[in-house]
Amino acid sequence: MSSARPMVSGAAATAAPDTAPPSDSKPRRRRARARRGREPLHVALLWLGPALALILGVVVWPVVELVRASLSRYSITGLRRGDAGLENFRQVLANDALDTVLVNTLVWVVAVVALTMLVSLGVAQFLNKDFRGRRLVRWAVIVPWAASLVITARLFTLIYSYYYGVLNALLLKIGLIDTPIDFLGSDAWVMPSMVAVGVFVSIPFTAYVLVAGLNAIPGDVYEAARLDGASPWQAWRLVTLPLLRPAIMVATVLNMIYVFNSFPIIYTLNESNPGFGHDTTITFMYKLAFKSAEKDVGQSAAAGLFNVCIILIAVLAYLRITRWRKES
Amino acid sequence: MRVISSWTAGAARLGVFAAAVTLGLAACSGGTGAGSSSEKATKIKLVAAEYSKDHTKAFWDQFAKTYHDKTGYTLDVQIVSWDDIDQQSSTMVQNNNPPDILNLNAYASYAKDGLLYNADEVLSDSVKSDLLDTFVKSGTYDGKLYGMPDLSSARAMFYNKTLFKSAGIAAPPKTWAEFEDAASKIKALGGGAIGYGLPLGPEEAQGEFSIWTFNNGGDWKKDGAWTVNSPENIATLTFLKGLAGKGLTQNNPGKTNRQDVFDLFASGKVGMVVGFSPLAATLDEAKKVDYGVAPMPTSQAGSEPKTFGVTDYLMAFKKDGNREAVKAFYDLYYQKDQVNTFIKAEGFLPVTKSGVEAFRADPALSSLGTYLDTLPNAQLTPTDDPAWDRVKLAVQQNLGTAITGDPKTVLDKLQAQAEGK
Q1: pTM for the model
Q2: Regarding the domain delimited by B43-153+310-377, which CATH topology (the fold level of the hierarchy) does it fall under?
Q3: pLDDT tens per residue across span A292-312
Q4: CA dihedral sign, ordered B256, B259, B265, B271
Q5: Which residues on chain B are in Cβ contact (under 8 Å) with A45?
Q6: How large is the ipTM?
Q7: C-alpha to C-alpha distance for B215 and B197, rounded to whole angstroms
Q8: Which residues on adjacent β-strands are paired with residue B77?
Q9: Which residues of A touch B115 (CB under 8 A)?
Q10: Which CATH number fits domain A92-327: 1.10.357.10, 3.40.50.300, 3.10.180.10, 1.10.3720.10?
């Protein structure tokens, strides 16, 4: 059936000129058809060239360099000393701190993304309501997103500070604690403190993706739900949430990637802690190259390639579990 | 399905073409860059660390102008913050594009990799003989001077006179026992007073530990062998851990950086801290804390106090045709009116014999007397050993863990790392 159709339309097309007045319209139309079908290669290249050059220069080239670096032996100065084979990968896998770093990464990504999604669902609902000053609130929510991450992180080191921090002063004042908490030095507190900042900076983007999702839900489905006697909670759970699913999934995937790759927050808040105790794979990779006793560009590049694999696998696994394709 | 496969085929073809174009461009740009190899360089590049926002750039810009006027060579100046300079220099070497002159706190690994000129090649005899012997020693790798010192600093004990007076401490402590006693008395004042600010966090743990252990007869290396886990060093680290355990230091000293301790001292909460001349400059400007500077206490009564000296380096990379320009750079930098002006503006200490004399003669610098006396005998870390460049990082990343862990275990591990096991 489907293979027959083009033949019919093709026959109609060839038949059409016979009924039309005899003119030079026939070859012109053919040329038009050919042009629509496929442009010659050089014309296509002209249009695609800039984009391709950009992709090659910005995406492909660095990857090639990264792979080359991961297979090379480097001196501490950065001088290339020859091929290393897979030695760098072996060294990274043999690193004593690797287990800690992987657990930290898992905790960091899962906690930040989950909490961000939870809070953002609420924030998005709120921003979607019509109230006086909504525009102002919407702008205010953007601020943490617009501010540079390094500056935000630096600000939080002041807020968290043991001696001068606003947070400790506040908690002491309202009598919640008797002695200050070392938010960035006590092993129990460092990760929760970093997660809080991670959530804080991830909310704006997530909330806006969800607001867009909410706006796309037509009003009549709520009307139908109300007519069928659904309570507000039921309407939200049975109508809003399923219809918001594509937006939630987009926000989750993008957040997973952003949060996994987040460097400034962890690096800045964790600055005064020695060793790899609170590092994720991203700061681990940086310290391998420049700060730790390894100081080895090759190992760092190998760790970088592992990072790419980890996040790809994590995202694919998430999409598989949530059956992304069925929804789209 | 077919659509996709034909699209991929097309994309692959385009990709090959575009790759060829890119490679062609890369080849072209590579060609122009390498073209001038056999000629004499008329332009050299300096990558310098930023000691201060106010003075570093101003000095080097002025220097570049004088250099151009006097020699005809052009000096391209790039100032990099201390946070980024390791990364930047490493990247430049990786890309086979090092600067002609690099200002850094390490040089031996670069000398070992054969990247540097030695003093015989680029330093005039008059300049070389003017350098302080301590720094010539620390800048010498394998019998030749590669690490030309740009400036130096020496550490001493800063104490808060107001807190000392309130606590009834008559004079700065001379021994570790007196020191501990003083710290306890300050802590006993209450109101958040801290006896001693101890920074063993990753920023500069090796510096803090060095000055303490030097005053206990310890060192990193003795007679060419690593002594990281020597009994003296273990005793020193145990003593510092003990201070933390008794609550005589600020909270969590293993995770406190030097700058944080300086800030605490500047707020007037801390009784004592190991500082250097830039800290004095900050305190003088703020005029908040009435402080004194004293030699470090020693573990045993009657032994000579030692100071810990630090120098940074200006090293020169071997590149085709740049030797004359580099030599002219050093000749100008070590002129009295250049090197001393720079060091004075940044608040550090001289590296030349003539500089020490000039500083001593300058009434405005009378407060530096303590440092100038001790400078020629200052003890340094083994910067002349390329292995130290790695050991230093290991120390920075691990020493602080001894505050909650076992000092001997931590130092044993560092010793093994130093010996390359």
Answers
A1: 0.83
A2: D-Maltodextrin-Binding Protein; domain 2 (3.40.190)
A3: 888 999 999 999 999 999 999
A4: positive
A5: 14, 17-18
A6: 0.83
A7: 18
A8: B46
A9: 77, 79
A10: 1.10.3720.10
